[in-house]
Each structure stands twice: as C-alpha cells, then as structure tokens.
Amino acid sequence: MYRFKSSKYKNATPKVPKKGEGWVLDVSVGAPQSFGNHIKASALYKAFSVDNRGGGSLGILPLDEAGKKSKNLPLLHAHSDFVTDFDFCPYDDGLLATCSHDATIKIWRMPEGALLGNDTPQNPEVVLNPGKSRIENLTFNPAVDCVLASATDNTLQIWDLVSQQELSSNLKHEELIQSLSWRGDGNQLVSSGRDKKLRVWDPRLSTNVLEASSHSNNRDSRVVWLGNTEYILSTGLGSAREREVTLRDVRKFNVSLSSSSGDSAMGVYIPLYDPDTNMLFLAAKGDITVHFWEVTFKEPFLSEASKYMGEVQTKGAGLVPKRALKVMDGEVNRVLILGQDCIVPVPYQVPRKTYRDFHADIFPDTAIASPAIAVSDWMAKKPAKALCKVSLDPEKRPKEGLTRTGHKLGTGPVPGALADDPAGRQIRIVPTDFSVKEAREDARPKPFPSEKPLPAPKPAPRTKVSCPRWDDPPSSGGSSTNGTASQNGDASSAMPPPSKVAPRARPSVTSGTGGMGSSAAAPTGDCQRAPAVIAQRGTRDSKCGCPSFDT
Fold first, then answer.
1. Pairing of strands 464-465, 539-540
2. Tally of CB atoms within 10 A around 129
3. What is the pLDDT of residues 161-176, one digit of tens each?
C-alpha cells in the first residue's frame, strides 16, 4: 500500500541552534495586526515587522545575520502608517514590495553588500496609489516579469510595475480579502476572504473561474497554491474555533480531498510550502509549535511527519528559498520564526551517515531566479517556456552563484534562463568552468583532521655499489697506479668487468665497533673509500669484505 512507501524527507528533523548561536536577539516586534506573515526571506535578506512609533518601518538584515540588534538594527522607513504585508521578488533577491494602511504600494531596491544602520534605501523605485483604502495583501507573480497582485478591502488588483497601470478589473469578493497565492506558472491565482469563499481567478480575462465554500469561521484564513499543480491548500477556523487544514483539487473544487482539524485556538496556521520536496510547514500565531507535513497528491494526501516544540511564541513565519540552504549540511528547508523580540531559524536536516558528499537524492534541481515571460506576452496569452533548472550541488553551480540582484523591471527573462526545447521540458544548467573554492561558504567541506593522510610515495630502489679491489687488474684500455683512478674519479669506474676478472679468495675480516676499526683486518689491497663513509655505513661487501654503501 502507498502508506508504507518510504519517504526521503519523513525523518527530516529540526536542528535549531542555541539561543546565542544563530538567533537574532533584542528586536522589538510588538503585536502586528494584519493578515500578513510578518517575516519574509530572499536568498540574501530577511525582512520583518518591527514595533516603532510610526508603525511604517521594517527591519532588514542579511539572511545569515545573527546576534543582538537592539542598537544597530537597519530599518526601512517604508510608509507613514503600519506595514500590513511585504514580499521579496522571486527573480531579484534585493527587490522588496511593501503595502500599508496608508493606501500605497512601494517597491524598494536593497543596496548590495552588508547592511548597516543607515544603509537601507531612502527612496522607493516605484510608488502605486490604488485608492483611499488600506491594502491588506500583496504578492509577486512567480513567472511574469514586473507583475504584482494586491488586495484592497474586497477588491483584487493586478499591477504592471513598469507602466504602473492596473491590468485587471472587477475582481471582487463580497467581503474583505484575507489571503492571496499565485499558481506556479503565474497564469491564475487563488484568494480567500471573510465571505468564507475560495475563489480562483484568471487575471488576463478578469474573470472568476472557480468558487467554493471554505471555513465556517471567518476570523482569519490562509490559502496557498501548491506549486504548478492542480491542488490548493487552505487553513482557517471551524465553528468551534478549531484549526482546520483543507486540500482541494481545482478539477473538483467543491469537494475537499483531505481535511484535518486540530486544537481550538485564536490563530490560524500559516502554511509554508516547498514545491521541490512537497514539504509543508504549519506555524500559528500565538503558538510555539511548528508542524511538518508531507503532501503526496494521492491517498492519504496529507500526513504529519513531526512537530517542533519551541520556546518562542510565534508572531510570524516564513520560508527561506532553496537557493540559500546549506546543502552540504543536509539542510532541505529552513523556517524562520518571528518571536516577540527575536528571530529563530529552524533548519530541517535529513539524517545521513556523512555530509562530506552532496546527496542529490534529497536535493532536486530548483528553478533559476528569472521571470519566464514578459508582461506583454503574458497578457497576449503567449505560451511561456519552462525555466531552466539549476543543481544545488556546489560543484555544478554557476560561477556567479545562485543569488541574483539588479534586475531591471520590464526586461523580461534573463538570457539563457529559458529551456530551448520546443516542448518546454525543464533542463539543467551544467557549468563547464567551476571550482569548489569559488563556491559560497556552504561548499564542500575539507576532510576532517582526524582522517589518516595518504601514504607517501615509495622511494626509487637504491643500487648497492661495492668497492673495487685495488690489486685487481684494470679493464682493457685503462691504466691505474697507486689508486689514482679511484681517488680522482668514481670508484665504480675503476672496477673491471666481472667476466674479465677472476674472483679471489676473500680475506678473513674481523669487524670492529662501528665498521672498520683498528681491530679489523684489512682486505687484500687498500680500500679507496673515505674513512667517514666507512665509519657511517659500517657494512661490508659480500665478496671482498670491504665496507660498502648504498647510492
């Protein structure tokens, strides 16, 4: 049966660092009151709600920044009133959209490099004024360049950020809109509202294509489209204020495929979904638990894998992009929990015997950071090609890395980001010139110091040379008297060929201490070797009894 099928991620466990080793501390969050998630992350930055007098600021930090920030927290003074929601651009890690009770939408570009207290941008790149009512939600289109969706009261609006014009009209709920989510291909989006309805929209036609009843309690709700699939997941409250999670298929939208109810509480689950691994994380405002579920798209559809019981009461939650994970540590996802005065990273790690090698089985290729189609082509309903996919293996990453900044709105897809296959199949980018040393800090680690070094190469074999006997006759054509040849040249050069020299009887030799001492009987003839060599080696030739040495 399917329920007994092994899962790659079922045993993923949260590896939360200690409070002083990875947490952001001493930040004043307050009690944000809106339908947003209050913390978002790109592959470079994290933005979060802060409590200040004006109410229109956000805290901005590099993604891996930690420590106490009571005096040096960089603030983005974005609006004149409370910031209700914000979102990072999926194809530019430095582009941030914000909306507020002051009825404006602004697009901000983060400076490159480290952020200091006064390094946040002072002027927005784009300002939109949808009307006089406060804006509750916004979200970037994941595939179309410079397209943004926002919700003002009960009205859904689709924006072209370059022309600053509204692309769709007459997209309305009966009451306040509480949540928005795009389909993975960017062609449709779903919304949930206080009218207890889920609605699927086609923005290019300005039509409501599907509608279904959602949760019976309209206090709050969330909705997320599960990647580029036919499935939509919503969270809300039941009639007894019990938390509910519901999965639907858009092909049978009026019937829920799976529904789960939990304990009674005031806060709804914030759903965080990873389409690469089908991992779903649920964190609720006012709670200290993070639930990890798996989505299977067949019975039983939703299955709970683990719970993390923390010590921080949740004010908001967000998911880190796959391009920023520490894959060489086995980190398959990372949830950021916003607390009353801190930010807690909750990395999920798949257990392995060793993390020295990249485990491709738990890290599928992920989409490159680029829009798939320009807004003009999208509005004309031209088909969009699939985005290329890039490996998370540090040895196969592009030299420029997986982060991207500086995208100019309206320029369309990045060159080389789309698949050339006319069928639109997703392909991989395999760079040809890459060094592990050029990877980011999560590159392949060095061997542990405890490992045994490789054995040294064996030296070349040495040849043993014996001293010639002085009374042997020289080779033909040569001459030697009183050992002149052996004194002025190599000893072996005076040795006659073995075939021409008759062997002589070896004299009796008595070895002394350390070689040729005073008590040693000398062989026939005088040995021509230096006394220092004789004393150092202290070995004798097997034929003549003279001291021998190795070369």
1. unpaired
2. 10
3. 999 999 988 899 999 9
Tokens of 517: 């001492």
Q: How far apart are CA 221 and CA 282, in angstroms?
A: 13
Structural tokens at position 173: 């709920």
Gap between the Cα atoms of 143 and 90, Å rounded: 8
Structure tokens at 215: 């949760």
Q: d(Cα 245, Cα 215) in Å, to the nearest integer?
A: 9
Query: Are 512 and 519 contacting, i.e. CB atoms less than 8 angstroms apart?
Result: yes
* Domains defined along the chain, listed by start: 9-324+336-349 (2.130.10.10), 465-551 (no CATH)
Taking only the tens place, the pLDDT of each residue in 313-340 is 999 999 999 999 999 999 999 999 999 9
Report how far residue 47's alpha carbon sits from residue 138's, in angstroms, rounded to the nearest whole number. Answer: 15
Predicted confidence band at 450 (pLDDT cuts at 50, 70, 90)?
Answer: very low
- What's the whole-number mean pLDDT along residues 471-493? 44
pTM comes to: 0.75
Q: Return the beta strands (E) in 89-241 as ranges.
A: 95-100, 105-109, 126-128, 135-140, 147-152, 155-160, 165-166, 171-172, 177-182, 189-193, 197-202, 207-213, 217-225, 231-237
